[in-house]
Design goal:
The protein is built from three helices and eight strands. It is of the alpha+beta class.
Length: about 150
Amino acid sequence: MAKRSAGLLMYRRNGAELEVFLVHPGGPFWAAKDAGAWTVPKGEFLDGEEPLDAAKREFAEETGFAANGDFIDLGTVRQTSGKIVNAWAFEGNCDPAKLVSNSCDIEWPPRSGKRIEIPEVDRGGWFNLGEARNKILASQVGFLNVLAQKVG
C-alpha cells in the first residue's frame, strides 16, 4: 500500500498576482538542488488522524507557523516515489526568515550505517505561480493549477 501524506499550501495576493509559500527539504541530498526540489509542507498521517488535521500539524512542525482560516481542497497527487499526497490551500502570510523546522534522523551517506540529524526543511520562500511551477516537485504542479482555478 502506498504511503499517504497531507500538506498545506499557503497563498497570498500581491496586487493582482497570486504567490505561494513553498519549502525546501533539508539535508545533504537536497542541499544543491533548487529547481524541482521545493515542496508543499507535508507529512504522513498518524493512525486515526484526519488528513486535514495531519496537514495542519505538519505545516506547524515544518515551518513553525500556524495555519488558520478557510481551507480549500486541492485534491490528491501521486509523487514519483508512489506516495499519495492530499493538499489544501489557505490564505495567509509569513516571514520566511522566521521559519523554524523540526528535525529528523537519516542515514548518511546512504547504506553507510551512519546517522545524522537534519532539519526537515532548511528554508521557505514566496513565489509567484510561474516561479513556483519551476521550483516545486513536478508531481505537485497540479496543486498550483487547482489553486489558480479556484482562487486566481
